[in-house]
């Protein structure tokens, strides 16, 4: 499989050999419109610090992210990193905001929700229709287990029957990226977007952090507090796995990665 970092059609920065595209929301919309209009197929990753650090060790995950059409910075730290590297227009692309914006664009895109529960899917559909009553949207909740070959065939068959323009895949970070890589060849059309927890952010089941937390790159801390109030054991597990183990690795590697990214940006600027 070719190295997407060397063949990306869109500007990007690297962190620990993981691709992060440096686009604005408007540019992402424009890319999606072109892809859908041309009936291209592919997938988009919403990449956060946790997935970047995981992908540095998990080569299959790294391959999945780097071979995506777009790997968008779903987190303020990665967006700031891209801007400090020289890509001044880079924006943090939130999964929930991207979903809501695409629902509201009234561009005629049809949508398919894959993952989470039937209850959550129905809540997303209801809220999407409040935004645009004419939106074409449906979905499917696959079994909560490691998918069998039959599970995958069932999912692909249901997607093909619906023939959507955009497929929102909500299996959780790491799993959804690999699934999209493994299954993109089985689709006839459609752009898959790894949505992570965007369904629950969109419905309000997860609370959007206040602006001050977002500016200080502390969305994770706000989510930890929220989960702690609901389930202390779950919150502790999330904190250990996503922050205590991974964020320090990101910080330790940050200076050298930033220096390398700045050199690359300068070299690109000098050659144009």
Can you walk through the features of this model?
This protein has 272 residues and is an alpha/beta fold. It has one domain (12-271). Helix content is 54%, strand content 15%. It is built from 13 helices and 8 strands. The protein has helices at residues 25-37, 49-57, 59-66, 76-85, 95-104, 118-131, 149-162, 175-183, 198-203, 211-215, 219-230, 232-244, 247-271, and strands at 12-15, 18-21, 41-47, 70-73, 110-115, 136-140, 166-170, 190-194. The strands form 2 sheets. It has a 6-stranded parallel β-sheet with strand order 4-3-8-7-5-6, with helices on both faces. The protein has a two-stranded antiparallel ribbon with strand order 1-2. Strand 7, helix 8 and strand 8 form a beta-alpha-beta unit. Helix 3 packs across helix 8 (175-183) and helix 4 runs parallel beside helix 13 (247-271). The longest helix has 25 residues, at 247-271. The chain is globular and about 50 Å long. The model has no long low-confidence stretch (mean pLDDT 88).
How many helices does DSSP assign?
Answer: 13
> Which runs of at least 5 residues are low in confidence (pLDDT < 50)?
none
The biggest beta sheet is recorded as: 6 strands, parallel
Instruction: Label the structural class.
Output: alpha/beta
Number of strands: 8
Rg value: 18 Å
**How many structurally independent domains?**
1
Mean residue pLDDT: 88
Q: What would you say about this model in short?
A:
The chain has 272 residues and is of the alpha/beta class.
Task: Describe how the helices and strands are arranged.
Blueprint: E1 12-15, E2 18-21, H1 25-37, E3 41-47, H2 49-57, H3 59-66, E4 70-73, H4 76-85, H5 95-104, E5 110-115, H6 118-131, E6 136-140, H7 149-162, E7 166-170, H8 175-183, E8 190-194, H9 198-203, H10 211-215, H11 219-230, H12 232-244, H13 247-271
Helix pairs in contact: 2-3, 3-8, 4-13, 11-12
